[in-house]
Amino acid sequence: xxxxxxxxxxxxxxxxxxxxxxxxxxxxxxxxxxxxxxxxxxxxxxxxxxxxxxxxxxxxxxxxxxxxxxxxxxxxxxxxxxxxxxxxxxxxxxxxxxxxxxxxxxxxxxxxxxxxxxxxxxxxxxxxxxxxxxxxxxxxxxxxxxxxxxxxxxxxxxxxxxxxxxxxxxxxxxxxxxxxxxxxxxxxxxxxxxxxxxxxxxxxxxxxxxxxxxxxxxxxxxxxxxxxxxxxxxxxxxxxxxxxxxxxxxxxxxxxxxxxxxxxxxxxxxxxxxxxxxxxxxxxxxxxxxxxxxxxxxxxxxxxxxxxxxxxxxxxxxxxxxxxxxxxxxxxxxxxxxxxxxxxxxxxxxxxxxxxxxxxxxxxxxxxxxxxxxxxxxxxxxxxxxxxxxxxxxxxxxxxxxxxxxxxxxxxxxxxxxxxxxxxxxxxxxxxxxxxxxxxxxxxxxxxxxxxxxxxxxxxxxxxxxxxxxxxxxxxxxxxxxxxxxxxxxxxxxxxxxxxxxxx
Amino acid sequence: xxxxxxxxxxxxxxxxxxxxxxxxxxxxxxxxxxxxxxxxxxxxxxxxxxxxxxxxxxxxxxxxxxxxxxxxxxxxxxxxxxxxxxxxxxxxxxxxxxxxxxxxxxxxxxxxxxxxxxxxxxxxxxxxxxxxxxxxxxxxxxxxxxxxxxxxxxxxxxxxxxxxxxxxxxxxxxxxxxxxxxxxxxxxxxxxxxxxxxxxxxxxxxxxxxxxxxxxxxxxxxxxxxxxxxxxxxxxxxxxxxxxxxxxxxxxxxxxxxxxxxxxxxxxxxxxxxxxxxxxxxxxxxxxxxxxxxxxxxxxxxxxxxxxxxxxxxxxxxxxxxxxxxxxxxxxxxxxxxxxxxxxxxxxxxxxxxxxxxxxxx
Lengths: 504, 362
Prior knowledge:
The complex is a heterodimer. Chain A contains 17 helices and twelve strands. By secondary structure, chain A is α+β, with helices and mostly antiparallel strands.
C-alpha cells in the first residue's frame, strides 16, 4: 500500500515536472516570453535571418552593442560555426541541449539562432556585473592589517583569496545547490595540505543539501552543521580574505557562496571563535594578553548575573561584611526579588541591542544613548533596579561584545538565560548543574566530525600553542593536529631558529 | 572478545589516568580524615600510603588478567567460570556499579542538604540531574571520558586553597611519628580502602582504550596521584585540627575551607560544595556507564534501555532513603562490598583465571 502510494506520488510529480520543462527550444522561448524582460528580435541579412534572444535585466547591454551586434551585421555568415568564428568573445558555446540552454539563458547568456525550428544555437556570455566595490571589513574590523572584505560576487571573492595564495595546490570545486536559486557554491582547499576526509565530508554534505534557496553562506552553515540543534556555531564565518587565506594554508576548508560576503571556515574549535585575526598582527605577548582578557570577559558575561542572583537569593553568607553594606543600601528600596530584577535588566539590554541593530545607523546611536543612559539612570532612581546590578549587567553586555565572531557573541548572550533560571532554582549548585549541561553539550558537538573542544579535550598539548595563548611564530612550525593535515609542517623549524654565534 | 570496539569510540591511553583517578576522588575527600584517624590517630597518613601500595598491586593483578584475555571482565569471567556462572558474577558486578553510582549521589546530596539547602526539593532536583546523566551517558564513552577529564582538571584549583589552613597549622600534632602499633595502623589502612574503591571500572572500560596493553602506567599514575592527594590533605588536616576536634568534625576538609577568606568572598565552603558537583558527576556517569556496559556485554541488553531503568532505580533509591542512619548504613554496606571485591574477590579471580587459562592452553 505504502509502496503504491509512493509510486503514485512519484509519477504525479514527474508529470508535473514534465509540464514545466520545455522540450524544444521554441517551447523555451514561448515560456520565457511570458516575462516582460525577455527580449527577442531578428536581424534580416542577405544570407539569412538571425534571431537574438536574451533576458535584458540580466545581461550587459554594452557587451551586446559593442562586441556582438556590429560583427553580426557587417559580416557574412552562412551558419552558426561562421558566426562563432566572427564574434570576438571567448568561450562561445554551441549547444542543442534544451536544459543547458535554459540554464545559460537564466544566468545571463545571449541566444543566437538561424533557424527557429531546430534546437541548435549559440550561447554568448554577457552577464552584467553589478556589485559593490571591495570595502573595508565592518564586522571583523581590525586596527592593523589589510582593509579588504569580501563582497557579494563569488568571482571577486575568489580573486581576493587566490591573489594571497599563489599556488597550484589551491583547488576550487564548484557546485550548484538549491532547487530554485541554483546558487553557485565554491569549496576551497589547498591540495596536499587539507585532509582528504575533511574535504569529502564538506563536499558530500553540500551535495546532499535539499533546500529551495540558498541566499547566503549562513544557510549553508545551518544546513551542513554536525549538530543542527546546538546554539553554538560550528563553522566560522569570516568576511576577511586574509583570515580565510591563512585558514586555507593551515589546512582548513573554506566555503564561498555566490551573493554572500561571508566565507565559511571549517573544521573549527570553540577556542578559535575567541581569537581575532588581529592577534597575529600584534606581537605574541600583547596578543596573548588580549586573548586571556577575552576569555575572562566571556566567562564574566555568562556567569556574572547568575552568580548575583544565586548569591542574593540563597547565599548571603558568601558576601563579606563590608560589601554587604553596599549591597543592602542599593537593594533596600527594590520591590522585586533578584531574579526578576536581573531578568528585567537583561531583557532591557537585549532590547537596546536589537533596536540598535535593526534601526538605521544614525537613529540606532540615538536609541543606544537614550536607552543606556536615560532608562538606566531613571530605573535606578525610581527604585526599580539596584545600581550594583545595573553595573554588572552593563559590564556583562559589554563583555559579550568582545567576541570577535558575531555569531558566537549572540550565543554567549543566549546561554546566560538558562544559567539565570538554574541560579534561581538552586543557587550555586544550580549554576554548577547548568555548567555540567553546557560542558556535556560542548563535548558532544563536532565540527565536520572533529571534536569541538579540542585541544582542551581530547587534550593535545601541542595544539595549545595557538589557543588561549598565542606563542611566537617560531613556535608555530606545525599545523594543528585537529585538522589531521596531509603535510603537518608549516615551515622548517631548524632553519627559522638558526642562531648565529656572537659577532658573526 | 570485546576488543572489536571501533577506533572512533576509543580514547587515548592517557585517559586511564583521569578515569581511575576521578573514580577514587569523590565525596570521601570531604571527610575521610575522621574515619581513618580512629585507630592509628595522627599516624594514619602512613596507613594511606600502605593502602595505596596495596591498591597498586591489585591494579597490577587486574591488568595482568585483562592483558592476557585482551578483553573485559565479562570475557574474564567466562574464561574463569564458564558461561553461566560467569554471567552470574558479571550481573553482580553490574549491580555493584549501579549501587556505587547511587551511593555517590546520595552522599553528595547529604552534604548539600546539611550545609547548603536543608529544604532542597529533592524530587525536582533529581529529575534535572537524571536528565543530565542521561544526556551525558547516552553520548557514549568518549563524552563520559571528557567529563572525567574536566572533572579532574577544573576543580583542581581547590587544592591551592589548602594554603589557607596551613597558615594556622601546628606541626606538633603530628609528633611523635610511629607511636602506634602495627595493628592500629593496619586497621586504619582498612578504613582508608574505602577512599580508593571505584578503580574497578578499568575491568569494564579496558577495551575502550586505544592501546590498552600499554595503559597500565597511566592507571598506576592515577592511583599514585590519589594517594598523594589523600596524604597531603590528611597531613594538612592533622596539623590544623587537634585530635579531639577532629573526632567531632564530620567533614573536616569542608570545615577547613571555611577559613578561606577574600575581600569579595566569605564562607568559601559554599563554593567548594558547588564545585564538588563537578567532582562527583563523572563518578556517577562512569559507574552507570559501566553497569550498562556490563549488562550489554553479558546479556545483550540495549544500553539506552538499561540506562533509563537504572536512572529510575537511582531516582527511587534516593527518595526511599529517609534519614541519616539509613544513608550511613547504605553507604557503609556498599563500601564494604567494594572492600571485599577488591581484596578477596580480585585475588581469587586472579588465581582462578590464570589456572583456567593455563589448563586451556595445555
